[in-house]
Amino acid sequence: MKINGKHHRTIWVEADGWSVGIIDQTRLPHRFETLRLTSLDETARAISTMQVRGAPLIGATAAYGVCLALRADASDEGLEHAYAVLLATRPTAINLKWALDEMVASVRNRPREERVAAAYARAAEIADEDVAINQAIGLHGAKLIEAAAAKKPGKPVNVLTHCNAGWLATVDWGTALAPIYTAYEQGIPLHVWVDETRPRNQGASLTAWELVNHGIPHTVIADNTGGHLMQHGMVDMVIVGTDRVTATGDVCNKIGTYLKALAAKDNDVPFYVGLPSPTIDFTVADGVAEIPIEQRGAEEQSTMTGLTADGRIETVTIVPKGSAVANYGFDVTPARLVTALVTERGLLPATREGLAQAFPERAAEGARLARPIAAE
Ligand code: MRU
């Protein structure tokens, strides 16, 4: 996507041909700064501190992290170490494991001297595939917005989204926001309600920044506002992204998504999920019971970071000393609350059958891995 007329992806190989460039998302929306990653440890830190975040971008970054690790040590032990270090950075987004498995498969059976080049080639493919997948999600999802627009001629379609599942969360285009960008470019009038998304404020800081830069009408709301808007007919559809979807269609996403899905159900508002296939985990069936929910540091909840009147970025404390604080990063929306999954292969029902029919190759592999060893 473009910033000040210049096209950017969220991750790239620098002109030196090996180090990896990223946008430091912890500085947005107030500063646009890029960083250069040169080692496995720097890459792991960038993911765990959320300089890069969003399930697809976490996967692509981890892929390049393997490249950087292999430059230093292309042995089997080096590969295993990189896999373990990167896998431990964020537990919920399954794209991380997917990308690491892809990287291991692409280098494991090669001699050491070929591994670095093979790794960079596969990481570039993973990044390009992500862009193509998201463009396809955009085209399929835009049809939903077009259909909603046809029901209210001359008026904008109001889409509510939670967290940031735009281009910053991916390599380009985004998942939940790809249909919005595509519909906007098709000339469909729309307006986006942006949940601020405490505690890290990915909606207020990142989604709003993307939409401002693209010129798309939007309004930032407190996280608790969506239900009220839905009761008053001010939301035509909800579109969110996801960090992991089970084989049965349960959707894990940023904390607070479940409450939006409940409100949408109660108000007959369709609830859609932008879902790239690497985000499907065919090895798990029950999202609430089986998906590990990341718990992050208390300081994310007890503080707020923003721009002061004289242009400094500062962090202030908003919770009294002595209060306990909990910071659950994600929740699970059961499949029964999901109207449809918007994938690169079209709209799917959030069911085991729907997912398995659309992605038979992944479903078969997932079932094999999920089978208990005793049953083999
Ligand atoms: O913790 P983050 O910022 O990495 O989480 C990202 C999300 O949960 C987003 O909501 C998104 O929908 C999933 S990534 C496309």
Task: Give your account of this protein's structure.
The chain has 376 residues and is an alpha/beta fold. It is 41% helix and 18% strand. The model has no long low-confidence stretch (mean pLDDT 96). α7 links the parallel β7 and β8. It has a seven-stranded mixed beta sheet, sandwiched between helices. The chain has a four-stranded mixed beta sheet with strand order 13-10-11-16, with helices on one face. It has a three-stranded antiparallel beta sheet with strand order 3-4-5, covered by helices on one side. α1 packs antiparallel against α2 and α2 packs antiparallel against α3. 5-S-methyl-1-O-phosphono-5-thio-D-ribulose binds next to α2 and β11.
Number of helices: 13
Number of strands: 18
What oligomerization state is this entry in?
single chain
Strands ordered across the widest β-sheet = 8-7-6-9-12-17-18
The rounded distance between the terminal residues' Cα atoms is 47 Å
The structure class reads alpha/beta
Question: So what's the overall shape?
Answer: globular
Strand content: 15-25%
| Low-pLDDT stretches | none
CA radius of gyration is 20 Å
Bound small-molecule species: 5-S-methyl-1-O-phosphono-5-thio-D-ribulose
**Helical content class:** 40-55%
Summarize the main sheet: 7 strands, mixed
Average pLDDT confidence is 96
